[in-house]
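dumping this here so i dont lose it
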């Protein structure tokens, strides 16, 4: 069950990334690739929202109006919560919709909610059968699921460490929607620190601002221990 949900999450995260870059490229009238929190070509917010819709909205697939309203509601709530959490952690707005009509604190807006509703209908009515076939094909190959999960987990860890190093909260961005600029900073920083092991060893000691709860503390201790014992 967990493997199934992760694969569904991962596939929709990738599809969400593609939708996002196409939409932003059209709006900006240039190719926009630096979207999202992670380094890889996926947006977890789309994956999480899609999994929630798959779990709770499949039963409404024959009622398009209810499906549209519920999908719009779920995705709008997810976008609002994600915006609030990211700002609380990094003290920076990753996106801002104050320039759009009918927005709530610039975190969500009506036009996006409508698109979310339409997207939800498309996911449940059209994409679900296709994604299920892909997932059922991949499930027997557990090594693939493990590899994708490991890549995603490392991506999240490296991104969090890098954002901590860059001190995003202290920076000034040219736009209220800072996602593209932040993603570009992260990628440029990683390019300058190409060796992953060296990069992580140097980064973890700086990732201790919250000493009461640091999810990387155990990893940091293990890496430091390995370094002392000359384990490569």
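and the seq i came up w/
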């Amino acid at each position: 069950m967990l493997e199934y949900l992760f694969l569904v999450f991962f596939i929709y995260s990738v599809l969400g990334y593609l939708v996002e870059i196409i939409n932003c490229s059209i709006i900006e009238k240039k190719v926009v690739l630096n979207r999202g929190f992670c380094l890889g070509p996926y947006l977890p917010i789309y994956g999480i929202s899609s999994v929630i819709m798959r779990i709770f909205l499949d039963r409404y697939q024959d009622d398009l109006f209810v499906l549209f309203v519920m999908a719009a509601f779920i995705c709008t709530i997810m976008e609002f919560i994600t915006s609030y959490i990211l700002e609380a952690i990094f003290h920076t707005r990753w996106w801002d919709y104050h320039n759009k009509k009918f927005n709530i604190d610039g975190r969500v807006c009506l036009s996006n909610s409508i698109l979310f509703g339409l997207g939800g209908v498309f996911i449940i009515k059209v994409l679900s059968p296709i994604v299920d076939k892909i997932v059922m094909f991949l499930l027997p190959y557990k090594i693939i699921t493990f590899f994708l999960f490991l890549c995603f987990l490392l991506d999240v860890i490296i991104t969090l460490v890098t954002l901590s190093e860059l001190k995003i909260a202290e920076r000034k961005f040219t736009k209220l929607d800072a996602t593209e600029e932040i993603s570009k900073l992260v990628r440029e920083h990683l390019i300058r620190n190409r060796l992953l092991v060296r990069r992580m060893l140097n980064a973890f000691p700086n990732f201790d601002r919250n000493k009461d709860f640091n999810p990387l503390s155990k990893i940091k201790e293990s890496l430091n221990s390995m370094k002392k014992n000359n384990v490569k």
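The chain has eight helices and two strands.
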